[in-house]
Amino acid sequence: MSGWIKRGNYNHKYHHKQSQYVVKEYSSSEEVLDRYEYKTRAHIQEVLNMKMPRKYVREEPTIRGPTFLVRLRSHTVFENTPINLFCTVEGYPLPIVKWYKDDVILDMSSGKYLVQAKGGVHSLEIQRCTTDDTAQYTVVAGNMHGQASSQASVIVKRYKHEEFCPYGWVPYNASMIPQIHYTKINITFEEKFGPVFASEGESATLTATMNLEPNLANLQPEAQWYRDDTRLFDSKWVKIETGRGVSTLSLPILYKDDEGLYTLRMVTKGGTAEHSAFVSVADGPPPVVGAPGAPMDMKIHDANRDYVIVSWKPPNTTTEGPILGYFVDKCEVGTENWTQCNDQPIKICKYPVSGLFEGHSYYFRVRAVNSRGVSKPSRMSEPIAALDPTEFERLHTRKFGGRLNVVSYHDDVEADGKPPCSPSGIYASETDRTYIVLSWKAPSYSNKAPMWYYIEKSMADSEAWQRVNTQVPIRSPRYAVFDLAEGKQYKFRVLSANMYGTSEPSEPSQPIETQELKGVPSAPGQVISTRETDTSVLIQWAPPKEPNNLIGYYIDQCVKGSKDWTSANHKPHKSTKFVVSGLTTGETYVFRVQAINEIGLSEESQESAPLTVKAALTAPSAPYAISVVSCDGHSMVLSWKKPLLSGGTPIKEYYIDKRPSGTSLWREINIPPVAERLYKVEDLTQGEVYQFQVYAANLVGLGPASKSSADITCEAWTMPEPGPAYDLSTCEVRDDSLVLEWQKPVYTGSGPINGYYVEYAKRGTNEWTAANDEATSQCFLKVTGLEEGCTYDLRVRAVNDAGVGMASMPSEPVTAKAVPGSQEVSCCVDEKTGDIVFTFESCQMNAGSQFVWKKDYEEITDFSKGVSIKTEGNKTKLIFKNADKEDFGTFSVSVTNTEGVSSSFAVDPDEMAKLLVLSYDVRHPIIPLKSELAYKILERGRMKFWLQAEEISPNVTYKFFVNNKEMSGASPNKLGHDVSTGVIEYTMDHFTEDNEGTYTCQITDGGGTAQSSLVLIGDAFKAALAEAEYQRREYIRVKEGPHFSEFLSLHVGDDCSVTLACKVANLKKESEFHWFRENAEIIPDVKPDLVSGVCKLAIKLFSLKTTGIYKATISDDRGKDMSQIDISGKVFEETINQITRLAGATAQELVIHCTATGIQLQCAMKYYTSEMNITWYYGEKKLSPSDKIVIGGTPAMATMEVVEPTDKDKGKYSIVITDPEDSHKRTLDLSGDVYDKAYAEFQRLKAEAYADKHRGKVIGGLPDVVTIMEKKTLSLTCTVCGDPKPQVTWLKNGVEVERDDQYVISVDQGKFASLTIKGVTMEDSGKFSMIIQNKFGGESVDVVVSVYRQGDKIPEAKPTVTTKTIIPPKLPIELPETKTSPAPSPARPARPAHSPTPPRAAPGRGVKSPTPTRRKL
Q: Residue 841: how many CB atoms within 10 A of its CB?
């Protein structure tokens, strides 16, 4: 009897087919069944070892069947309790695991069983066991190299009595043990490994140190290392060491294959503890600049006798050119000779390597190619042997006589000389673009003669079969057919053969289609980045719509605003989420993603929105230390300490709950929430006992509740001493000192607080020591005399006249030990700016850390006086730009989110005074001079005054003074400097006797100043003047052309007239003189007097409107000379001052002139313009233009008008005319009779103006003269107005016209008046008058009508001398009662003082009629 032997976990090599029998003693006893199976496996192994030639290399890692490292354990449990069955299995390839219950595969669809697998750890969980779950459970693990199984029994008992168990007969030695209670081992990682960023070729080590509690020598946890959830073991590429609370993983030579998330799992019987970190491996330096990175992740598929199929993953090409293809290399194990397998680069990441020698083992690697060159090779694959994968399925055993058994191949059995049968069941186990891997079922065969196979192919729609050529005989029922066309359908059939013949072909396979190249994937969808930590960001994206056999993704990163893209990962990532690590805190990044398949990389996705790297925000932790700081019997004031963790964003508000002690229902008591850590709880019951809890909230949301306070009784505080201080905090902790801060008590007792006492005690004792002998008035104190390393509690007592109050709650325990690396605040004066700067460098900076500066331990928030804070990295500066002597005090800084990093610097008044002096010296340095101020006489007698500084900047400024009067650089004079030489000069065009005196130059450059003077008086001045005049005369003599002997100058006459004057010389008859203003020629009223050479130009009505550059030119055929003056700026101001002086001296007394809008005060003077320094006053109050006050004037007077005066406007008014040397004041008392008369005159003029506005008027329409033919109809029509509506009367030659059939009089709508004469006759010739009037008056308009007969000559009629006469109003004039505020009116020319009221306009024509003067009808 024969049977198939299952493959186990053993190593095998290629062997020759030689008949050999292995005979061993055999016992059929059931007791030694296991022994027999073991011996059978040993026999097979012995046969393999004997047939394996020594020249072939044995490679264990490539052939590894399943092995259970941890086997299942039996359990006895009670019903309705959970149970977990665990096992750990290893093997290569990774085994597939299946679960059985009583030899029946488990039904996972019921939802009762939960199966999990992570790496090599597998588990089966039953949540609620029942008695039906009592069974024998089996786990079977298998791969291509064999199978392995493990069994365990589960007995489920009832609580009252044990039910019948079908496995009760199982003996104790069958692992039926009671439930085991494992010792719980707590594992705490003390030192963790962080992210690693390295390049190919480097090495990396990950080390974790842990603390075990309890630490039992015989019960140590198992350290398991994983990369992307794949278990790692000791190998050529990975070294693992674990022991004594330390586990280390070393990567001796890094490749991109090593990139991933590394996890250390410490496994115990009671659970696991794990820690993870990302290892990034970038491309190493390429062999050629611009060459691509190396491919990675070499995999071997379908290894056979003469071929293997290799695949890999493409590298990222963020900055390199696109990849053109790949070269695959092979190397036989035991040699170092690498051979290129393909002549031309292949474009996809999979390649069948043929031509291998059967039984030989090989390594493989791949290189990428682009236009710049070839990349480094990838990491070589694991060794693979070219073997028949079905080699050992043909092994079988044969038993003889009960005591002998034989292990042999099927083809070692004696043959009967027949061909084999046909194969069957042909199908494709793998398809690709150019090849198909076929599998089939071998025929039943038992013959000594070797058997092999032939494969035939045909197109799916054809019956033309073609034999597939192979380099070696096909002995395995699995083979890859190469050189197929893409996207085509084929049929295949197989024939088996031996030395006796060939079988019939098998049944053809179903049509099998090769894959068609679809291209790279489409670009991934939207990329979203979110904050993770202060150095990492979580990236998520949508998968591509066309994945096309997607392999994974590459993620690129770039700082916002730059184009420097770098790879975030260097090995394809399979998930659509990725954490980008190693980013710079506070920097802003954008991200993009590319998809990858075996053909290459997709287009880049759209860039993500910019994201600044910061730690993710969380809700704050709970507040703590709730205490009462005041109570009046009906309310309590609570205080608490802020949460230790703010969640990365400031805490915005707090919520307080209360409940009576002994109850469980909390009630919120503050709506809305409070921002401060002090709150008064109202409406409490006296004598009731309460508990309180507090929540903190930030931008993220509400944090957890604080621990409830102790029981607090609502009883009024009546003691005379102060209540407790609160909110104690420490800073500036050093080895022997610290600073304590607090808030003053809410309850002050019977009087104000005089000071505070601070006490401290070692932690765990009650021996309080006073830190200060005298009470301090400030809410902070530096506590000294502490012992290094000791932990202290501190408290504060307030003092008033009644005594020392109750102690505050103790501070948080603080250890007198400085933070390692602590530095102190330094103070200095900036050498460039002169600012006083306090500088501090922090030894710690964490996510969200901020610097907080305080003065006398109160945060600095007022930056209006030149105080600023500058922070860069871990350095901060407090800068005083405008410090004064009052800015002394203690300046401190603290760093949030650190271990209490803080420091301070005390500045007393004397120290501040020294700093201010030093600051002044820095800001006002003395500029060194090479040469003091000197002079040089130039051509034409011009004088150049100059000096030379050691160095000046382009921003230098300077001024020249002569006798303390600043000189202008306007033409013809000139100011200038030369930065390269440091020379500053002033050129005076005309040096005269008036220029005797002291010359001074003042220089300012940055913060530096300098001054130099030159005295030219007496003989020194006379010598310089004589030389200058000589040079001027010599220049004129040499030039012999027209020129200015005196340049343009500005003169103000006694009558305040302004005149430009100059003098020309060396003229002739043809010489021409011209005036210009802003390059536009001026034609003066008086021509220049070229005979005398004196030329003048009067500037009329001198004001700001007449400013500008004035120029004069003199020219003839001998040449041209020019002189100009800039009348603006200082020149204009000096002229106005001179005019003001003259006008002020001639100013007359104020006079009153009334107008229809108000009372006007006038001051006559020689000249007035608005640019003069003239001010009006009402009493001592300065008047400004407004709707009530109108200030203006004419060239002959200054005026001020009070619009719509009232009694409030009575009083003294004055005008003050001010010049730099003197002032002139004129005053008028506008009150009493003076005011009454003026007010009466104003009312009269106002009434007349009102009457004139509202009287009856003819707006237009009437002609002066009308000529009309007899018997025609004459219509005289005009437009009238008036309020109230006026009355209209028509007169003929002074007699009122009566209405009749001939004369028709009408007034339409009160606006249109008309007189119609029907059938005019000669008697109608004459003067017609229309009178229109109301109570405010009116007017009379005359029209001359001339009638002529038909055929006569048209007469020439002449209008009357006065065609319109004004009719005065009826007196008195009645004004409407309602007064409205007058509209603001612009300043208008006033009438001369004491001038009579202007005569009323003489009656004459009104608005001219649109009717022609003469017309024919």
A: 14
d(CA 293, CA 855): 57
Q: Residue 201 above 50 pLDDT?
A: yes
The position carrying tokens 């024998």 is: 136
Cis peptide before 810 (omega within 30 of 0): no
SS3 113: strand
Per-residue H/E/C for 357-372:
CCCCEEEEEEEEEECC
β-strand pairing of 566-567 with 552-559: antiparallel
- Host H or E run for residue 354: strand 350-354
Rounded Cα gap, residues 482 and 460, in angstroms: 17
Can you state the percent helix, strand and coil of the chain, rounding each to 5? 10, 45, 50
Taking only the tens place, the pLDDT of each residue in 1168-1216 is 999 999 999 999 999 999 999 999 999 999 999 999 999 899 999 999 9
**Cβ(496)–Cβ(422) below 8 Å:** yes
Q: What is the DSSP letter of 149?
A: E
Rounded to a whole number of angstroms, the CA Rg of the chain reads 57
With vertex at residue 1141, the alpha carbon angle to CA 1136 and CA 1142, rounded to the nearest 5 degrees, is 100
Tokens of 502: 């060939």
pLDDT band at 519 (very low <50, low <70, confident <90, very high): confident
Segment holding 887, helix H or strand E: none
Both tokens assigned to 958 = 């300077």
What letter would DSSP give residue 985? E
The two tokens of residue 1042 are 């027209």
Measured distance CA(933)–CA(984) in Å, rounded: 9
pTM, 2 dp: 0.44
pLDDT of residue 586: 83
C-alpha–C-alpha distance, residues 1235 and 1219, integer Å: 31
The helix (run of H) or strand (run of E) holding residue 1249 is helix 1232-1254
Q: Return the structure tokens found at 252.
A: 């001796």
Give the other-Cβ count within 10 Å of 845's Cβ.
18
What whole-number percentage of the chain has pLDDT above 90? 37
Rounded Cα distance, 1140 and 1218, in Å: 7
Strands of 588-596's sheet, edge to edge? Answer: 566-567, 552-559, 588-596, 611-612
Which one, of 1137, 993, 990, lies nearest residue 1056 by Cα? 1137
Residue 1417's CB is within 10 A of a number of other CB atoms, namely 13
**1038: three-class secondary structure by DSSP:** helix
DSSP structure class, residue 474? B
User: CA-CA distance, 698 to 1091, in Å (whole number)?
Assistant: 93
Torsion 269-271-277-282 (CA) sign: positive
What CA–CA distance (Å, rounded) separates 375 from 324?
A: 12
DSSP string, 947-962: EEES---TT-EEEEEE
Q: Report which DSSP code applies to 1103.
A: S
Residue 471, CB half-sphere, CA atoms under 13 Å: how many?
12
d(CA 1382, CA 1292): 43
602 touches 525 (CB < 8 A): no
Strand ranges in 842-966 using DSSP code E only, listed in sequence order:
851-855, 858-859, 867-872, 875-880, 889-895, 902-907, 929-937, 943-949, 957-962, 965-966
Q: How far, CA to CA in Å, does 357 sit from each of 350, 868, 1057? A: 21, 80, 122
How deeply is 105 buried, as exposed, middle or buried, from its count of CB atoms within 10 A (0-12, 13-18, 19+)? exposed
Q: Where are the alpha helices (DSSP H) in 797-891?
A: none
pLDDT at 390: 66
- Report d(CA 1319, CA 1159) in Å as an integer: 57
CA distance 1065 to 1063: 7
What is the rounded CA–CA span in Å between residue 1149 and residue 1158? 20
Q: Which of 747, 741, 737 is nearest to 728 (CA)?
A: 741
Cα–Cα nearest to 929, from 820, 1011, 999, 864: 1011
What confidence score (pLDDT) does residue 871 get?
Answer: 92
